[in-house]
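FW: tagging you since you asked about this chain on Friday. Here's the raw sequence from the shared folder, copied in full. Didn't touch anything.
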Amino acid sequence: MLIRRGVSFLDTVFQCFEVRFEKYNQQQNWLISPFIEELIPTNHPVRIANGVIETMDLSSFMKSINKEGKPAFHPKMMLKVMVYAYMDNTYSIRKIEKAMRENVNYMWFSDNQVAGYNTIVRFPKASSKIY
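HL: got it, structure written out here
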């Protein structure tokens, strides 16, 4: 193998072995975007937590919601996010907020809604008054 002047070693290696790469384009638009539902495996723990919380009676949550002001996040959604956060060993409120914005599992639970720091902090306090 001869190395020519002005040509890097890696360029020479790539030419000798004819290295090929998969197509890579971050700006490529999708004709049909995937549903978040499709991105989560059927046996993933997030689905187990969802199934358990869906079967719970949350009528006491519904009665305690303040009817005034800005519409609240659904208590069932907030409970799912908090339970999964603890299952995921995520205890930091800021990390939970970030996960709701960036993690597919949290996006699925929250239906792409992102609760702010204060809302997440207040949720356990508000729900503990119910019981």
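FW: The helical segments are 9-17, 36-39, 45-54, 59-64, 75-87, 93-102, 104-110, 117-128.
HL: agreed, and DSSP finds eight helices and no strands in the chain.
FW: great, closing this out.
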